[in-house]
Specification:
The chain has 108 residues and is mostly helical. It has one domain (13-107). It contains three helices and no strands. α1 (13-42) packs antiparallel against α2 and α2 runs antiparallel to α3. The protein is elongated and about 50 Å long. The N and C termini lie far apart (51 Å). 10% of the residues are buried.
Length: 108
């Protein structure tokens, strides 16, 4: 296991970023639960929506440690960069979920 990175102020950017991603993860899990309620009305096609949203939530969960380490090292080096790939991936997943849900609702 890697050594923790010492940060002078524990309320700095890495913690806030991790908390924001945790809220995003919980949001994707809540959306998955809402999609479960659609199952009786829209059938098995909803399974795709549940799979997409829960996969995104678990992807966020699995990448949290690396994200925190990267942010903490950036704060220590006084050079923090945005995680553009993660934001673009989240945006693409949200657009895919929205498109699939619209198609599902209008097609039923």
């Amino acid at each position: 296991m890697k050594e923790p990175i010492e940060i002078s102020d524990p309320g700095l950017q890495p913690e806030r970023t991790v908390f924001a991603w945790n809220r995003t993860m919980v949001s994707f899990l809540v959306v998955s639960a809402v999609f479960l309620r659609w199952l009786p009305h829209y059938g098995l096609a909803v399974i795709l929506l549940i799979a997409i949203s829960s996969s995104m939530a678990f992807g966020i969960l699995l990448s949290q440690r690396a994200r925190y380490r990267k942010m903490a090292q950036g704060v220590k080096a006084e050079r923090v960069s945005a995680d553009v790939l993660a934001v673009l991936l989240k945006t693409a997943v949200l657009l895919a979920l929205g498109a699939c849900a619209i198609i599902l609702v209008l097609g039923a």
